[in-house]
Write a structure and sequence with these properties.
There is one protein chain. The chain is an alpha+beta fold and about 70 residues long. Helices cover about 45% and strands about 15% of the residues. The protein contains four helices and two strands; from the N terminus they run ααββαα. The chain has a two-stranded antiparallel ribbon. The longest helix is centred in the N-terminal third of the chain and has 13 residues, at about 1-15. The radius of gyration is 12 Å and the shape is elongated.
Length: about 70
Amino acid sequence: SDQTLQALLLEEKKADKSMIVISHDIDSIAQIADNLLCLQQRMICTGKPNLVLRSQEFQDLIGDHHHHHH
């Protein structure tokens, strides 16, 4: 489940482990991640979640298809 995955990711983060997570669930991952990398055939944007989610590149990528919460 999503909660189990989030709990596991938070546990690993607290243990100061680095992880690469591939997901389309941007809202959940953005709450946990230190950095995001958005790909669509190429790198679209990367950085701290709050900056990525507000970036013009990210907004152009998602258009009206996704409504995320800050």
